Amino acid sequence: MKKLILASTSTIYGSGYLEYLLPTLKSFFKGHKNLLFVPYARPSGISYEAYTKIVSEAFKKIDINVVGIHTFNDKQKAIEKADGIFVGGGNTFVLVNELYNQDLIEVLKNTIDNGTPYLGTSAGSNIASLTMQMTNDMPIVYPPSYKTLGCIPLNINAHYLDPDPTSKHKGETRETRIKEFHTYNKIPVIGLREGSWLQVDGNEVVLKGGLTARWFVKDKEPIEIETNHPIVI
Q: What start-end ranges are recorded for coiled-coil regions in this protein (predicted)?
């Protein structure tokens, strides 16, 4: 049975890297002492080594050892043998492009579907969706496809922002962009606010964290989903 945590972000205001999630991750990865980290999204262009070190320092606090996938010659086998997997945030286009270039999409999906626990934050959560089309990132590279892992039957918009009624900015809101997406696509979308995550057990998807999430379905008005509420497709 597949098990995933898909978080909007790795860091919330006033907190360290993954700090707000560590109690949940300690329980989620119980019995799994080694974690394979995929740093391909690498925010701000930092090296894979530097990114992996940041992740490793966080997971040391819950006694989990982290190894970067970039250190393995056979990356497909590294995924297949992984005790647990974490794909971090950064640029989703860069991440998806690299996963396709390394021929890792199918093996990653199959490994997750077979029960290896998976953590995604931001871009790492986006790729668990049916497609990556709800990313907020700039298209700085051109991946072979927008199709991603499809571990959940919806798309995630991470870092969801509500319209600010006091703002003088007249550009598109996040809600407007999601509605534009639904002009051409039927895939439902969840807007995850910072500090919220989806917990997936088999086919059950439940909103976790202290905030509601925004739920968008084509040709319907968006609604708020309460925390601890299952997502019904």
A: none
